[in-house]
């Protein structure tokens, strides 16, 4: 080991000792000996979740039965938990509702955006490198609403906006490259052009400040099983800015979106507020697991999470450069902080095999087709020693 390399181990220990968020790791249950850098795909298990889920099943369901819809607060869970997530998104209460998958919420949001847009506008701008589900749903929503999908690089959106732009669907952070797009500037440009914005926050919520209200975003969606640690398949959320709520016309009006669901009336009257983004009976077990998971955020400022995330990814890059032979991997994620999410993506030959080998050695990241190694840094439970060990192990794989 070179002197530079042993210094990195010492630095990691010093950085962890000085890290105020380091103690939050106790709020999670993680297997011993594993460096978990896949929390951008499936967040770790918050320590309070198993007990809470057991209570929901045994007492709220087993004993209280149907009474729990009211007495255990099941019925209002979608908007209550939405309000719990809202501060992490920079949203005032009453604008976020939890339920369904991100894919389904994308459908509601994109069709809803098309219906909010000024009549006669024909274009739906969509992130050219978007996550597949966003692209598929945008295509279908466009067919249904008579819009044309125009693929565009997010950075080029301001130049692509025009009098024919109805709506814009973008990812805040690119899932493959980890590039962070300029939400404030793009949203401002879209607003100035009279277009409705829909942001997908799957890879930013819980990792960095989003500022939905401050930046005038119209609609947003995101999942809760990544940086929010809600558990496999936990329900997603939909943000409907207060100024649009009266006009938001959901393409999936269910009885849960009705102003008086228990009136059981044949005519649809949408509920006021974000509640109209609900559809059918919520998935209570996953929903309440998510609510318990969000306790891991008690007292945590998202600005501090962002600062640690950048420090972690900077340090990981420094270690990668020290431990790997030059030229073995190519950095895909931007170095500039303003353009970086909370992951590092490295391009390499044999990425699938390299990741398998890393996982076998206790460093869990993931592989994205065709040649990307992805390492997600979740500041609530990943530390600097983890970053150092991950890079050192990667170095060993390249032997
Ligand atoms: C993870 C992710 C999704 C997932 O959608 P599901 O409906 O939960 O499967 C969608 N969009 C983006 C950008 C994602 O990163």
Automatic annotation (TrEMBL):
InterPro entries linked to this entry: Kynureninase, PyrdxlP-dep_Trfase, PyrdxlP-dep_Trfase_major, PyrdxlP-dep_Trfase_small
Known partners and oligomeric status: Homodimer.
Family: Belongs to the kynureninase family.
HAMAP family listed in its UniProt record: Kynureninase (MF_01970)
Protein residues bound to pyridoxal 5'-phosphate: 102-103, 131-134, 200, 203, 225, 255, 281
EC number: 3.7.1.3
Natural source organism: Streptomyces antimicrobicus
Swiss-Prot/TrEMBL cofactor(s): pyridoxal 5'-phosphate
Keywords for this protein: Hydrolase, Pyridine nucleotide biosynthesis, Pyridoxal phosphate
Pathway stated in the Swiss-Prot or TrEMBL entry: Amino-acid degradation; L-kynurenine degradation; L-alanine and anthranilate from L-kynurenine: step 1/1; Cofactor biosynthesis; NAD(+) biosynthesis; quinolinate from L-kynurenine: step 2/3
Function: Catalyzes the cleavage of L-kynurenine (L-Kyn) and L-3-hydroxykynurenine (L-3OHKyn) into anthranilic acid (AA) and 3-hydroxyanthranilic acid (3-OHAA), respectively.
Pfam families given in the database record: KYNU_C
Name of the molecule in the record: Kynureninase
Superkingdom of origin organism: Bacteria
Keyword Protein biosynthesis: no
Catalytic activity: L-kynurenine + H2O = anthranilate + L-alanine + H(+); 3-hydroxy-L-kynurenine + H2O = 3-hydroxyanthranilate + L-alanine + H(+)
Molecular-function GO term, any one: kynureninase activity
Residues with N6-(pyridoxal phosphate)lysine modification: 226
């Amino acid at each position: 080991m070179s002197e530079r390399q042993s210094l990195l181990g010492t630095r990691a220990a010093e950085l962890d000792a000085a890290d105020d968020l380091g103690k939050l790791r106790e709020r999670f249950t993680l297997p011993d000996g594993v460096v978990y850098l896949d929390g951008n795909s499936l967040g770790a298990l918050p320590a309070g979740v198993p007990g809470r889920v057991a209570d929901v099943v045994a007492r709220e369901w087993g004993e209280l039965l149907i009474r729990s819809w009211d007495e255990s607060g099941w019925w209002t869970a979608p908007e209550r938990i939405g309000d719990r997530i809202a501060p992490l998104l920079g949203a005032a209460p009453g604008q976020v509702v939890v339920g369904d998958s991100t894919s389904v919420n994308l459908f509601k949001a994109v069709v809803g955006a098309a219906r909010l847009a000024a009549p006669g506008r024909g274009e739906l701008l969509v992130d050219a490198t978007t996550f597949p589900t966003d692209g598929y749903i945008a295509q279908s929503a466009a067919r249904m609403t008579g819009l044309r999908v125009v693929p565009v690089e997010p950075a080029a959106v301001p130049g692509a906006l025009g009098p024919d732009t109805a709506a814009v669907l973008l990812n805040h952070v690119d899932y493959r490259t980890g590039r962070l797009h300029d939400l404030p500037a793009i949203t401002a440009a879209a607003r100035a052009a009279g277009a409705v914005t829909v942001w997908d926050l799957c890879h930013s919520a819980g990792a960095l400040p989003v500022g939905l209200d401050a930046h005038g975003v119209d609609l947003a969606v995101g999942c809760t099983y990544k940086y929010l640690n809600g558990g496999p398949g936990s329900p997603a959320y939909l943000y409907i800015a207060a100024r649009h709520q009266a006009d938001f016309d959901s393409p999936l009006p269910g009885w849960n979106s009705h102003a008086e669901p228990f009136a059981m009336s044949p005519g649809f009257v949408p509920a006021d507020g974000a509640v109209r983004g609900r559809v059918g009976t919520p998935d209570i077990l996953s929903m309440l697991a998510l609510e318990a998971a969000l306790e891991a955020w008690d007292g945590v400022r998202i600005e501090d999470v962002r600062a640690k995330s950048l420090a972690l990814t900077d340090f990981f890059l420094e270690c990668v450069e020290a431990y790997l032979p030059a030229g073995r991997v190519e950095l895909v994620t931007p170095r500039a902080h303003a353009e970086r999410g909370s992951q590092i993506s490295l391009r390499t030959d044999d990425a699938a095999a390299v990741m398998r080998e890393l996982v076998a050695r206790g460093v869990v990241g993931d592989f994205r087709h065709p040649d990307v190694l992805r390492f997600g840094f979740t500041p609530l439970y990943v530390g600097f020693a983890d970053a150092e060990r991950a890079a050192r192990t990667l170095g060993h794989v390249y032997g």
